Amino acid sequence: MVINDIKDKDSIVKEYFKSGYVHVKTDPDNIEPTTLKEIASYFGKLLITGKHHIPGDRHVQLLQEDALFGNTVVPWHNDFSYSIGDYHGTLLAFVESDTPTHTEFVDCNKAYELLDQEDKQYISDVDCTFGIPGKYDGLISETQVKVIQKHVMTRPMAMTHPITNQTSLYFSPETLMETNKPIDKEKFIKHCETLAFKHHWEPGSMILWDNRRMLHRRDAFEGHRKLLRVNFQYEFKHASN
Q1: pLDDT in tens, the chain (241 residues)
Q2: Residues of 163-180 as b/e, b for ≥16 C-beta within 10 angstroms?
Q3: Which among 77, 63, 68, 73 has a CA at the least distance from the CA of 220?
Q4: 3-state SS of 119-168?
Q5: Which residues contact 35 (CB under 8 A, 6 or more apart)?
Q6: What is the DSSP letter of 48?
Q7: Are 56 and 62 in contact (CB under 8 A)?
């Protein structure tokens, strides 16, 4: 589903929690920090970043070849799985690129639903411990690195969503460091990849996704590619159903 009215808060929020992912299409001139922050604020609190933010605004990160993540492959992961903060969702907006580019996603609600009962039972008490891979140390501040190293983050592999109460398969392959009992990580990656889909970036395109539900990755690229990112934390109450 594509939503063309960036002011349609109700439709954006409804589709987000229904699908875990929503594509918002607007005039390319609207892809600016104030607009992105307004849309992200539909969900709650905007989060502050320590590095790779645009000048003068720590809420908005810059993703390009010489900034956050560079131009190399970024494997399957959930954003900030290793952080003690609740980075519930992400808004990513396309600014420009020399060549066609895309980001790939997996709905891990569906991935969990399609597991057989034996796998569901096995992972029901699996706890995953996450950390930031050494190659990404430069992406966050020294203070954040120290906090992450001091407060190791553990999350359940069968995760209950804080709003929908639905269950997702959560294991963020790129940042998974260990589990409390063995799992076949490659098996679960292959299972997720059977559900993968690509978002092809174009002018005026932005997407929001649920970090508790969606895995994502991107390929390496050449030349110039610029996107803007805002992370947010839910400020809703638990759903009643």
Answers
A1: 899 999 999 999 999 999 999 999 999 999 999 999 999 999 999 999 878 899 999 999 999 999 988 999 999 999 989 887 788 999 999 999 999 999 999 999 999 999 999 999 999 999 999 988 765 555 555 555 555 566 679 999 999 999 999 999 999 999 999 999 999 999 999 999 999 999 999 999 999 999 999 999 999 999 999 999 999 999 865 443 3
A2: bbebbbbbbbbbbbeebe
A3: 73
A4: HHHHHCCCEEEECCCHHHHHHCCHHHHHHHHHCCEEEECEEECCCCCCEE
A5: 6, 26
A6: P
A7: no
Nearest CA-CA partner of 192 in 113, 122, 82:
113
- CA dist., res. 187 & res. 62, Å (int): 33
Residue with tokens 């060549």: 99
Q: What is the CA radius of gyration of the chain?
A: 17
Which two three-digit tokens encode residue 160?
Answer: 């209950």
Q: What is the 3-state secondary structure (H, E, C) of 181-241?
A: CCCCHHHHHHHHHCCCEEEECCCCEEEEEECCCEEEEECCCCCCEEEEEEEEEECCCCCCC
Tokens of 16: 């987000």
Question: Which among 165, 163, 215 has a CA at the least distance from the CA of 194?
Answer: 215
